[in-house]
Specification:
6 helices, 0% strand
Length: 158
């Protein structure tokens, strides 16, 4: 196994799969990458460009469904913007197979990083909102009214 394949496997297992529990785009990317790996193991073709078109269409279909349901995020838009760059490499006949593979490898890494960031911020947002709400109810915040209720309680008026 090359270091690129090992790194991609680690990214998929450590970023893609955990993100797939929270983000359907990450799940689509994991399915897309896994199907290409299975095709590589079965056929030996490590650059199945015809398969990549279908895998890209699958991921784009999932992101478009999220957009239609008003669930798409800015991270999904960034993932979608990577596809045209990949298509330029699919169609380019001047670039050698190794350079094409490496360019597509970096683009897929970027997509997984964006999907992971999307899941991370979806996980972080409720916690941040909860922390802010808890901070607003502190006795040090005079607009919260907490200190006044406590003062009334200590004075025996409750």
């Amino acid at each position: 196994m090359s270091w690129q394949a090992g790194l991609m496997l680690a990214v998929v297992l450590l970023v893609g799969v955990p993100s797939a529990w929270r983000n359907v785009t990450a799940a689509a990317l994991v399915i897309s990458w896994s199907s290409a790996e299975v095709l590589w193991l079965v056929t030996g073709d490590n650059l199945p460009l015809m398969h990549y078109w279908f895998a890209d269409f699958f991921v784009m279909l999932i992101v478009c469904a999220k957009a239609w349901a008003n669930k798409a995020t800015r991270w999904d838009v960034a993932i979608m913007l990577i596809f045209p760059m990949a298509w330029l490499y699919y169609l380019d006949q001047e670039i050698g197979a190794f350079h094409k593979w490496m360019a597509l490898w970096f683009l897929v890494l970027a997509q997984f990083a964006l999907a992971g960031a999307d899941s991370f911020f979806q996980w972080l947002d409720p916690r941040k909102a909860n922390a802010l709400a808890t901070a607003d109810d502190s006795p040090d915040n005079p607009s919260s009214g907490v200190e006044y209720r406590w003062a009334w309680g200590r004075a025996g008026h409750v």
